[in-house]
């Protein structure tokens, strides 16, 4: 493994950003959108029975860790992965690996990262970052969502790695032990696209994919009646928060995937992927408009049934646009 200086690049989303930065360190150049696409990161799920801080959960991307596993598998990268029972063991293991000059990916809670502004520090336990060395007792951090490298003290890092709550990171760390010099992206792109289309169109449960967006639309319409005014605002607020703040959010993930299709179009010389990238950007705009209108409803403080009905209509529009898009994408022949 080479020990040249770790190169930090800011990215839109932590998991695909860490993949891009870590593999790039070993000479396998992969952009963040390409990692997101090959890892089939685009997804939708609304889980009323999975409460996050008492509020139903909504996700616009695949579950944490999945992008990483898929990219490694599809590109032939081998990762060493470890979790720990105590912070002492976890920190000792980290020190041992970075002493060899190997950058290490870590799972952490945003809440305990002091370099984040206070308004961004909330209990989100699936944030990925890279520690690539140590200087004067401080750990050197490449956090892909920050514009420059930064530092963190051992106490805060241990707290972030061993935060309580769901999902508990348990000090999870990972680093490459084998990275191929060259990798063909053709088959991985095709597999990533097929998997994304399957998840968005074919999961039989109503909470996932395009069906999941319609499922949420129906529930949003009934929020004022079924949940009451205060809870309706909370529930809606969380839908937007998951969309706009966690990672890059729902609309943002659509834009990242569009960038992946654009890159894939050039790599595979497939013009239709480029046209589909343009369509998906328009879908991303629909999500942005929804978030903007939902934000206004949340702030207006009145559980106005009319506006919740309108938001429900906007979600149905997003669902229709995504269904059309994914049906076209599923028909692209490679």
Automatic annotation (TrEMBL):
Superkingdom of the organism of origin: Bacteria
InterPro entries attached to this UniProt entry: BtrH_N, DUF4872
Residues annotated as domain Butirosin biosynthesis protein H N-terminal: 13-144
Protein name: Peptidase
Taxonomic source organism: Chitinophaga flava
All copies of domain DUF4872, residue ranges: 156-329
Span of the signal peptide: none
Pfam families for this protein: BtrH_N, DUF4872
């Amino acid at each position: 493994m080479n020990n040249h200086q770790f190169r930090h690049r800011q990215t839109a989303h932590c998991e695909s950003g860490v993949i891009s930065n870590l593999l790039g360190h070993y000479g396998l150049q992969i952009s963040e959108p390409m990692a997101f696409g090959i890892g089939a990161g685009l997804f939708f799920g609304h889980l009323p029975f999975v409460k996050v801080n008492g509020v139903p959960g909504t996700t616009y991307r695949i579950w944490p860790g999945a992008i990483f596993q898929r990219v490694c598998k599809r590109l032939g990268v081998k990762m060493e992965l470890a979790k720990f029972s105590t912070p002492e063991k976890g920190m000792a293991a980290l020190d041992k690996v970075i002493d060899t000059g190997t950058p290490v990916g870590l799972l952490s809670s945003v809440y305990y990262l002091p370099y984040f502004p206070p308004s961004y520090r909330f209990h989100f336990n699936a944030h990925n970052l890279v520690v690539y060395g140590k200087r004067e007792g401080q750990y050197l951090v490449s956090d892909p969502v920050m514009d420059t490298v930064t530092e963190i003290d051992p106490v805060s890092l241990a707290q972030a790695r061993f935060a309580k709550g769901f999902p508990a990171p348990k000090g999870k760390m990972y680093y490459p032990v084998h990275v191929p010099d060259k990798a063909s992206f053709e088959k991985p792109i095709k597999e990533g696209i097929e998997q994304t289309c399957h998840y968005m169109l074919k999961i039989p449960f109503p909470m996932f994919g395009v069906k999941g967006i319609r499922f949420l639309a129906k529930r949003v319409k009934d929020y004022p009646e079924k949940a009451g005014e205060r809870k309706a605002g909370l529930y809606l607020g969380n839908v937007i928060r998951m969309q706009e703040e966690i990672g890059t959010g729902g609309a943002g993930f659509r834009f990242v995937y569009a960038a992946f299709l654009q890159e894939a179009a050039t790599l595979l010389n497939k013009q239709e992927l480029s046209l589909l990238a343009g369509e998906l950007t328009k879908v991303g705009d629909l999500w942005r408009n929804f978030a903007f209108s939902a934000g206004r409803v949340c702030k207006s403080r009145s559980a106005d049934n009319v506006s919740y009905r309108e938001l429900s209509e906007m979600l149905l529009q997003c669902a229709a646009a995504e269904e059309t898009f994914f049906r076209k994408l599923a028909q692209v022949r490679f």
